[in-house]
Amino acid sequence: MRFLVPASTRSWVEVPVDSHFPIQNLPFGSIAREGAPRLVSRIGDLAVDLGLLAEAGLLPLWLSGAKDASDLVRWEDPLAFRSVRATLAELLESGNSRLRDDSALREQALFAIDPAAVRLPMRPGAFVDFYSGVHHASNVGRMFRPDQPPLLPNYRHIPIGYNGRASTVVVSGTDIRRPHGQTKGANDESPSFGPTQEMDFELELGYFLASGNPDGAPIPVDLAEDHMLGLTLVNDWSARDVQRWEYVPLGPFLAKSFATSVSPWIVTLDALALFRIGGMPQDPEPLPYLQQSGRTQFEMVLEVSLQTARMSQPQLIARSNMKYLYWSLAQQLAHQTSNGTRVEPGDLYATGTISGETEDSAGSMLELSWRGSRPLAMRETGEMRTFLEDGDVVTMSAYADGEGYRVGFGELRGKIVPA
Ligand code: MN
Q: Phi and psi of 345, rounded to 5°?
């Protein structure tokens, strides 16, 4: 049922060698054309209008007029998106003349991507953020509970998470306004209200659901991936000073709810299948409903760069890897539904911050600057950063290298604008 485009396959569409979007990727997204949203895929630097190909009889008719990835959701066939992607790969394969030689249709259906017209790939109905990056959880523990073990006793038993805010999920390129919040410094007698002084990012991946569990039945861990449409990059913007004051005892609330950015392209698990690896050892053994075998994790490079208003180009500040997740995507979804929670197509689940093992692989400013005690130097301007300042642009990227090609997510950008 999984549909892999072989490494040797090439397209008649020219794809730059370092592109994240060869024929092996074919993600889903949404772009406005003449003001109207259209469901698209992407190859190289071109978008492919899937609704238009459906109207021309080259893709299933139910995709006619499709606006975004929510139009891929089919309750009668939740995995239909896989065969759509398989048919698209056939149409774009170098030896296939059907679309290649129909210049009128080709020129309508394939078009250059205007970054300003890129939309959310689909509007999530719910947003959940997990805490599955074990090095991030350990770093935060070391900073905030220095005299205790870095991981709390529950960490290796439960995929920790919280319900986030779906209405403020925005697409890459959307400016992020510095939020106001209530904070209280260690030496302050009482809290005050104002713009956060500790604006931060969190490097994460996330997945959109293609299907839910209408009866509320728990989704078994071994079937969980079949409910996922695909992955996006996620930046879970965080106000650390607000978070520190508000999070006891119920967890993050307004420190996170003001904005969450996602990359424009939903990359399917099929496109990532060749980058599967075994997960890190889970000790103690998880409870039976979380037990999963096989290659449950993915080897994928994650990068963060920062460009201040004075810099002419971004500076790479962190390089991590998806393999540092303790809990797999499937374990997260199995856990979420284990109590009978009804989940729905379009729901967005994020992994939690994915930090690596070293100082330069941390997925947040909190860790990179070690709570502000170790400022980062910007080489070009000599500026120092502990947390983000107005005008700073954070860009995240993720990719994996196959034999002679690269599959990735493109860029996830966000600029901090004044409160
Ligand atoms: Mn997070």
A: -55, 140
Q: Distance (Å, rounded) from C-alpha 265 to C-alpha 226?
A: 19
- Written as one letter, the residue type at 334 is A
Out of 20, 136, 227, 335, pick the active-site residue.
Answer: 136
Pairing label, strands 46-49, 110-112 = antiparallel
Cβ neighbours for 235, distance < 8 A, ≥ 6 positions apart: 201, 202, 203, 204, 260, 261, 262, 394, 396, 412, 414
Place of tokens 């956060």: 196
Per DSSP bridges, beta strands 180-183 and 161-163 are unpaired
Question: In sequence order, what are the residues at sequence separation of 6 or more whose Cβ sits closer than 8 angstroms to the Cβ of residue 362?
Answer: 135, 136, 139, 318, 320, 355, 356, 368
ω into 284 cis (within 30 of 0): yes
* C-alpha–C-alpha distance, residues 43 and 19, integer Å: 9
Paired tokens of 111: 């078009």
CA 118 / ligand 1 centre spacing (Å): 24
pLDDT given at position 144: 87
* Peptide bond before residue 249 is cis, with ω within 30 degrees of 0: yes
Q: Which amino acid appears at position 98 of this protein? A: R
pLDDT tens profile 155-182 = 999 999 999 999 999 999 999 999 999 9
Query: Distance, CA 237 to ligand 1 centroid (Å)?
Result: 8
pTM: 0.97
Q: How far is the CA of 169 from the centre of ligand 1 (A)?
A: 13
The DSSP output letter for 76 is T
Ligand 1 centre to CA of 204 (Å) is 7
**pLDDT score for 2:** 65
Active site residue 335: no
CA distances from 212 to 267, 346, 352 (A): 19, 9, 21
Confidence of residue 4 (pLDDT cuts 50, 70, 90): confident
Structure tokens of 95? 């030896």
Spatial distance between the Cα atoms of 250 and 409, rounded to a whole number of angstroms: 33
Cα 407 to ligand 1 centre (Å): 24
DSSP 115-173: GGGEE-SS--S-EEEE--BHHHHHHHHHHH-TTS-SS-TTTTTS--EEE--STTEEETT
